[in-house]
Amino acid sequence: MSPAYRATTVGLVGSRAYDLLWGTTLRATTRAHQLLDRMSGGRLMRHFPGGAPVVWITTTGRRSGQTRRTPLLAVRDGDAWVVAGSNAGQERVPDWVHNVRADPRGAVDTGSDPTSVEFVEVAEPDRSRLYSLLVSQWGAYAMYERNAGRTIPVFRLRPVLDGE
């Protein structure tokens, strides 16, 4: 990487231009991911490059009341999946985080039958431990928190038993 390219790139990180460019790229990638998932019946796009697992979360829109399905990188912690509201390092918190804070009930789809879950936002010190697990699966998470300029929320997807 040339010094001029590095200086330009580093100067953009954390700026409005960076968030606009990266956000547009992220939305386009997510839409492509959703299309491939739909076209393949869920058989494709279950792992990121390098093997990190992708789960699909289902939440309820806090304003619309509509069901929302979002692909996220995840790690296992005991019987629960763990996800982070990184928004790929953007300053803006992703919409799904606002949705689960308003209504923590949802589902996680790992390629088999979707499981009903409760999204539980994790506090320190457990948050740091779980975020480290995410970093170990996808190293870019370390950069995301630096770039975002905010503490990235971490959620444990606690399976909900019948009758709960």
CATH A-level architecture: Roll
Instruction: Characterize the main sheet.
Output: 7 strands, antiparallel
Tally of separate helices:
5
Spans of 5+ residues with little confidence (pLDDT < 50)? 1-10
Task: Report the oligomer.
Answer: single chain
Biggest β-sheet: strands ordered side by side in the sheet = 2-1-5-6-7-4-3
Approximately what portion of the residues adopt beta-strand conformation? Answer: 15-25%
Overview of the molecule:
- The chain is an alpha+beta fold and 164 residues long.
- It has a single domain, classed as Pnp Oxidase, Chain A.
- It is 39% helix and 24% strand.
- The protein has 5 helices and 7 strands; from the N terminus they run H-H-E-E-E-E-H-E-E-H-H-E.
- Strands 2-1-5-6-7-4-3 form a 7-stranded antiparallel sheet, with helices on both faces.
- The chain is globular and about 45 Å long.
Provide a quick synopsis of the model.
With 164 residues, the protein is α+β, with helices and mostly antiparallel strands. The protein has five helices and seven strands. A seven-stranded antiparallel β-sheet has the order 2-1-5-6-7-4-3, sandwiched between helices.
